[in-house]
Design a protein that fits this description.
The chain is mainly α and 216 residues long. It has a single domain, classed as MetI-like fold, CATH 1.10.3720.10. It contains 11 helices and no strands. The radius of gyration is 20 Å and the shape is globular. The chain starts with a helix and ends with a helix.
């Protein structure tokens, strides 16, 4: 009965789930690109202020979510940016980026940079070395960072609560509003579906990484 209600009589819930999926994919993609590039730059290049940049990168992960949420709200208000899906995505990129940076950075610690020197000796340009040597070697770390960022985005409530606007209700915000009015068994059915989906995604990612490692 409650699974039937979940799938056929819960249009607002699925609308909020769609908002969460859009935010998670957009923010995880942006955080993955920025975090991977930052990790490669911090490991590959020498420049002034590298230690400071590393410290600032990990700051959103160390601060309490309430402080991050309030700070982002004040920031958006000062700029006059209307709250909505855009501000949620920017906020999620902010706190997801350190996790991608950490995952790719851990992969870079095991990376043999002599392969890069060999590619250069064979005539590879900077771009070819990055796309054909570095990125394939970092793919497991990049995918792990993407999945972690997407998971963190999907389950975030506190920061989203501060930066969400009208018409941008995500799944955690919708569940919170449901619980305030009384717990419905639909929430239990939704929890089971989300747990099964998460386990399947983790199993598929693990199999893909094993296949990729064997191919390498």
């Amino acid at each position: 009965r409650w699974y039937r209600a979940l799938f056929f009589d819960s249009a607002p819930l699925w609308e909020s789930f769609l908002n969460s999926a859009i935010v998670a994919l957009a923010s995880a993609s942006a955080a993955t690109v920025l975090g991977a590039a930052a990790a490669v730059g911090a490991a590959w290049y020498r420049f002034r202020g590298k230690t400071y940049i590393r410290a600032v990168t990990f700051l959103p992960m160390a601060l309490p979510e309430v402080i991050v949420g309030v700070s982002l709200l004040v920031f958006f208000r000062r700029l006059g940016v209307p709250l909505g899906m855009g501000t949620i995505i920017v906020a999620h990129v902010t706190f997801c980026l350190p996790f991608v940076f950490m995952m790719v950075g851990a992969r870079l610690e095991e990376f043999d940079f002599s392969v890069v020197e060999a590619a250069r000796d064979l005539g590879a340009t900077e771009r070819q070395t990055m796309l054909r040597v570095v990125v394939p070697a970092l793919t497991p770390g990049i995918l792990s960072g993407f999945m972690l960022a997407a998971t963190m985005s999907l389950e975030d409530f506190v920061i989203t609560f501060f930066v969400a606007g009208p018409g941008s209700t995500t799944l955690p915000l919708y569940i919170y509003s449901m619980i305030r009015l009384g717990v419905s068994p639909v929430v239990n059915a939704l929890s089971v579906v989300l747990v099964i989906g998460t386990v399947l995604a983790a199993v598929l990612l693990r199999r893909f990484l094993k296949t990729f490692a064997s191919a390498q």
